[in-house]
Amino acid sequence: MFGNAFHAKTVWVSGHTGFKGSWLCEWLLALGAKVHGFALPPPTVPALFDQLGLADRMNHTVADIRNADAVRQALERAQPDFVFHLAAQPLVRESYGQPVETYAINVMGAVHVLDALRSLRKPCAAVFVATDKCYENSEWVYGYRENDPLGGHDPYSSSKAAAEIVVSAFRRSYFANHPIRIASARAGNVIGGGDWAADRIVPDAVRALQQNLSIPVRNPHATRPWQHVLDPLSGYLWLAACLSGSQAAGPSSDLQPLTSDLASAFNFGPAYDGNGTVAELVTEFLKHWPGTWEDRSKSKAPAVHEAGRLQLATDKARALLGWAPVWEFPTAVEQTAAWYRDTGNKRTFTQQQIAVYAEHACAAGLPWAEKQAV
User: Fold this and answer.
1) DSSP assignment, residue 302?
2) Are 268 and 228 in contact (CB under 8 A)?
3) Would you say 264 and 181 are in contact if contact means Cβ atoms under 8 Å apart?
4) Could you tell me which of 211, 219, 209, 210 has the C-alpha nearest to residue 291?
5) Alpha-carbon distance 153 to 131, whole Å?
6) How many Å apart are CA 357 and CA 234, to the nearest integer?
7) Is 277 in contact with 235 (CB distance < 8 Å)?
8) What is the pTM (predicted TM-score) of this model?
9) Are 47 and 196 in contact (CB under 8 A)?
10) Chain segment 9-38, per-residue pLDDT in tens
């Protein structure tokens, strides 16, 4: 997979103890990479990082992305071929209560990684992970494109928009003629097994169903671009592989962009039918785990602003990378529910889901999943 770009290569991942970071590290290990992680301890109990036993299978550094010296020293020690920056304060509602911490992590964390990369004198492809919420949300019905205005109503969204501006500024100021290539990746609302965060609909649903309670839904009519976590991760990995300029990694013959085209921002969102309401997501989830849900939108609890409609356009990723999502909305929900309901070894089940996903991508003819001739 990915043109064998990661085999025996050193990959540095910030935020590796989080939900997406743990899935990414598991996939990188399967690809034969030497993985170095940099993050705070797992943020939840349980935590996917612990369930996968990742601490014993990779270089695991517990440190704070707000510590510029620690970031610099970690990157100097690792001398990575690839960097994935995922460390973030990822919750909208928490950002209202912790705005200073949110900006310090999401903005200055990106600054620290970018500044440390300036002194790394070897070829390296770096992908900075962003979010669909970095766009100035006009609540319109069509998808946001990479050149649409950035912004954000809440501290989380605006911090991710600010981080994207920082990435662009560093790329143009310091990395235009540098062996390090910088790109950013904006994903939709990811679902998948192993997410245990508070104030996210799938973990909230799982916790309620495990206790035979109705699922509390605070914003049932909000529309989001739902996608299984493996879809954006395949985009991050393929973007990094192509960005590295490896001869083994690159789109199919009719898609040969310059690496300068790839050193930019990319959306990795679901197919159009992946955009649905929270109520539709919960209803689909309950097909695989019977239960009920209740509308909490009229609760007297203090409300904070959350976007009503979000959608991403992925034309650029399709045109330049040949990338497309693999699992449609029903499959993404089914696979997510299956992960939580499985009572066996979570590492084994996670590895099996990655393998099945890759098989489906290969059957769909996606270039990153093409089997290589020997």
Assistant:
1) P
2) no
3) no
4) 209
5) 14
6) 10
7) no
8) 0.93
9) yes
10) 999 999 999 999 999 999 999 999 999 999
Give the whole-angstrom CA distance, residue 168 versus residue 116.
16
Structure tokens at 168: 């662009």
Q: Is the pLDDT of residue 255 over 50?
A: no
Strand order in the sheet with 223-228: 189-191, 223-228, 275-277
Q: What is the CA radius of gyration of the chain?
A: 19
**Omega prior to 46 cis, within 30 of 0:** yes
d(CA 42, CA 326): 29
CA separation (Å) from 153 to 19, 105, 299? 25, 18, 22
User: Token digits for 197?
Assistant: 């965060």
From CA 170, how far away is CA 228, in angstroms rounded? Answer: 31
d(CA 48, CA 370): 29
For residues 111-126, give the mean pLDDT.
Answer: 95
Per-residue pLDDT, 359: 97
* Contact assessment for residue 75 and residue 116, using Cβ atoms and an 8 Å cutoff: yes
The values of phi and psi at residue 14, to 5°, are -90, 150
Q: Give 131-185 pLDDT, tens digit per residue.
A: 988 998 876 667 889 999 999 889 999 999 999 999 999 999 999 888 899 999 9
The pLDDT value given to residue 140:
64
Amino acid in the structure at residue 162: A
pLDDT of amino acid 303: 59
Which residues, listed in sequence order, are joined to residue 130 by a DSSP beta bridge? 186
Residue 121 and residue 102: Cα distance in Å, rounded? 31
Q: Return d(Cα 203, Cα 16) in angstroms, integer.
A: 19
Q: What is the DSSP letter of 135?
A: B
Count of residues for the chain? Answer: 374
Give the CATH H-level superfamily of domain 2-188+228-272+310-328.
NAD(P)-binding Rossmann-like Domain (3.40.50.720)
DSSP states along 145-193: -TTSPB--SSHHHHHHHHHHHHHHHHHHHHSTTSSEEEEEEEE-EEE-T
**Given strand 10-14, what is the order of strands in its sheet?**
59-62, 34-39, 10-14, 82-85, 124-131, 180-187, 265-268
The domain limits of the chain are: 2-188+228-272+310-328
Structure tokens at 85: 């920056």
